[in-house]
């Protein structure tokens, strides 16, 4: 099922997508919902981030091919960091280039959306706590990341977490083609099968540290090919079976 959040006539609504038609739902994705008779064409609405997380837990260096590219050792445990909820934007929203940075990079990632509160969950039960999967762009001020020992500043500017276009609830996350285009040119191209720690292992590791709340997002790290964006660029992050998340850099 494809879950959407959108605005229409200045109202924020939730729906499910079937072909190009959105069927509005009553209720929410987490505590249950009913599909209404209310239908609208996808082109008539403004899509929003399909989730409004309380936090984004992001993972650093989780693709075998990316680790090789950087000549880094495969880590024993996932390296994690937090992006605040204030960074979230939706499809087609602008990514605002901060004045204090001279290198803002794209990073396409598979996003795990949590469906119910998860604390101390084992990997073999993780699936039950996952609502579905989305596309995430872990926008990063790379120069600031290099300068600071901590990553918080580099990862936390407003608009640095585009999420969307939807949440796919019935997809196997273990071998999905994942790619990114900048101004129409492919810059990243891999598969989620190259992840060092898979989605269920990440839920186990992170939920052993902190509770994951409904709507929270785990950003599962980018494959090789990260690089800079400039003002005026169009960035399209894609995960096969989920969709394309397009944003503009201003
Ligand atoms: Mg990242």
Structure notes:
It is built from four helices and 20 strands. The chain has helices spanning 64-69, 142-147, 152-155, 199-207; strands at residues 2-8, 11-18, 21-28, 32-41, 46-47, 55-60, 79-84, 88-89, 94-95, 104-106, 108-114, 130-137, 140-141, 161-168, 177-182, 185-191, 217-219, 227-229, 234-239, 243-249. The radius of gyration is 17 Å and the shape is globular. The protein starts with a strand and ends with a strand. Magnesium ion binds at residues 58, 107, 109, 138, 219, 221-222.
Q: The biggest beta sheet, please? A: 12 strands, mixed
Low-confidence stretches: none
* Coarse shape: globular
Number of strands: 20
- Determine Rg (CA atoms, Å): 17 Å
List its traits.
250 residues, mainly beta, five-stranded mixed beta sheet, 44% strand, globular, binds magnesium ion
Protein topology:
Blueprint: E1 2-8, E2 11-18, E3 21-28, E4 32-41, E5 46-47, E6 55-60, H1 64-69, E7 79-84, E8 88-89, E9 94-95, E10 104-106, E11 108-114, E12 130-137, E13 140-141, H2 142-147, H3 152-155, E14 161-168, E15 177-182, E16 185-191, H4 199-207, E17 217-219, E18 227-229, E19 234-239, E20 243-249
Parallel strand pairs: 6-17, 8-14, 9-20
Antiparallel strand pairs: 1-2, 1-5, 1-14, 2-3, 3-4, 6-7, 10-13, 10-18, 11-12, 11-17, 12-14, 15-16, 15-19, 19-20
The structure holds magnesium ion.
């Amino acid at each position: 099922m494809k879950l959407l959040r959108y605005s229409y006539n200045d109202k924020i609504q939730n729906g499910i997508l079937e072909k190009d038609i959105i069927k509005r739902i009553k209720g929410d994705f987490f505590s249950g919902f009913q599909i209404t008779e209310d239908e609208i064409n996808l082109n008539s609405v403004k899509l929003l981030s399909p989730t409004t997380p309380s936090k984004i837990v992001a993972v650093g260096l989780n693709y075998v091919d990316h680790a090789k590219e950087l000549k880094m050792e495969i880590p024993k445990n996932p390296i994690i960091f937090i992006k605040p909820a204030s960074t979230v934007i939706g499809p087609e929203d602008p990514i605002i280039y901060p004045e204090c940075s001279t290198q803002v990079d794209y990073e396409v990632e598979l996003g795990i959306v949590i469906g119910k509160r998860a604390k101390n969950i084992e990997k073999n039960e993780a699936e039950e706590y996952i609502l579905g999967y989305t596309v995430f762009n872990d926008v990063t001020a790379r120069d600031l990341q290099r300068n600071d020992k901590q990553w918080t500043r580099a990862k936390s500017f407003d608009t640095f977490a585009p999420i969307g276009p939807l949440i796919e609830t019935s997809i196997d996350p273990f071998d999905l083609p994942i790619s990114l285009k900048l101004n129409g040119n492919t810059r990243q191209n891999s598969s989620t099968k190259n992840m060092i720690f898979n989605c269920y292992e990440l839920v186990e590791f992170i939920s052993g540290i902190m509770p994951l709340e409904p709507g929270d997002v785990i950003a599962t790290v980018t494959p090789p090919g990260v690089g800079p964006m400039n003002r005026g660029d169009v960035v399209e992050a894609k995960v096969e079976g989920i969709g394309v998340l397009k944003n503009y850099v201003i």
